[in-house]
Amino acid sequence: MSRAKLSCTEFQPEFKSLANSFCKIYMKWLFPTVLRLVSFLEHCFIILYIMISLY
């Protein structure tokens, strides 16, 4: 998290506002969505593994 926020301020001045707004959108929406998707896939794999091992 801190590294991504740090990289937001390392852009050229003319791109700074655009990059900062994109970075804020990424940190607010894209990052949690990716984390949720990964955890969801992990749960699916665990459930599949349990079902396969039961049969």
Write up this protein.
It is a single chain. The radius of gyration is 18 Å and the shape is rod-shaped. Helix content is 89%, strand content 0%. It has one domain. It is built from two helices and no strands. It is mainly alpha-helical. The longest helix has 42 residues, at 13-54.
Q: Give the SSE order as H and E letters.
A: HH
**What's the number of extended β-strand segments?**
0
Q: How many H/I helical runs?
A: 2
Radius of gyration (Å): 18 Å
User: How many domains, as an integer?
Assistant: 1
Oligomeric state of the chains present here: single chain
Largest sheet: none
Stretches where pLDDT falls below 50 for ≥5 residues?
A: none
- The residue fraction in helices comes out at over 70%
Mean pLDDT: 80
C-alpha geometry: rod-shaped
Q: Class by helix and strand content?
A: mainly alpha
- Give the termini separation: 42 Å
Q: What is the strand content?
A: under 5%
Keywords: Membrane, Transmembrane, Transmembrane helix
Transmembrane segments: 34-52
Task: Describe, in short, the structure shown.
The chain is mostly helical.
Topology, pairings included?
Layout: H1 2-8, H2 13-54
Keywords:
single chain; 55 residues; mainly alpha; rod-shaped; transmembrane; membrane; transmembrane helix
